[in-house]
């Protein structure tokens, strides 16, 4: 699956790399972790001038691994409400779904 960056809700695949080099306003990020896995996600901003290798951290989150009995706790909402120069996925492991809500 490739990144889907059209519309107001973007869904991202697991491959690290550039998501967009265009300015974006991010309302929040919805992460759905995989069952019984310790997942991690790290999203960063692209610095002004387009340097995709460096930038401020937007979201750095990890899960400790939920059991199937705790499936109602597998999705987490991270409010961001901020404008960024661009978006890069640094790490995304053991995640069922990652959705970026834009304005």
Can you describe this structure?
This protein has a four-stranded antiparallel sheet, with no helix packed on it. It has a single domain (9-102), classed as Jelly Rolls (Sandwich). With 103 residues, it is mostly beta strands. The protein has strands at residues 9-11, 17-20, 24-33, 40-45, 57-62, 75-84, 87-93, 95-102. The chain starts with 8 loop residues before the first strand and ends with a strand. The chain has no helices and eight strands.
Q: How is the topology of this model organized?
A:
Layout: E1 9-11, E2 17-20, E3 24-33, E4 40-45, E5 57-62, E6 75-84, E7 87-93, E8 95-102
Antiparallel strand pairs: 1-8, 2-7, 3-6, 3-8, 4-5, 4-7
């Amino acid at each position: 699956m490739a990144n889907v960056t059209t519309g107001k809700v973007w869904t991202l695949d697991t491959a690290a790399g550039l998501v967009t080099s265009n300015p974006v306003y991010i309302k929040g990020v919805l992460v759905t972790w995989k069952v019984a896995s310790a997942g991690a996600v790290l999203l960063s901003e692209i610095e002004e001038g387009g340097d995709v290798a460096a930038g401020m951290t937007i979201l750095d989150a990890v899960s400790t691994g939920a059991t199937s009995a705790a499936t109602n706790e597998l999705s987490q909402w991270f409010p961001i409400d901020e404008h960024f120069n661009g978006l890069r996925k640094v790490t995304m492991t053991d995640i069922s779904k990652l959705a970026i809500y834009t304005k």
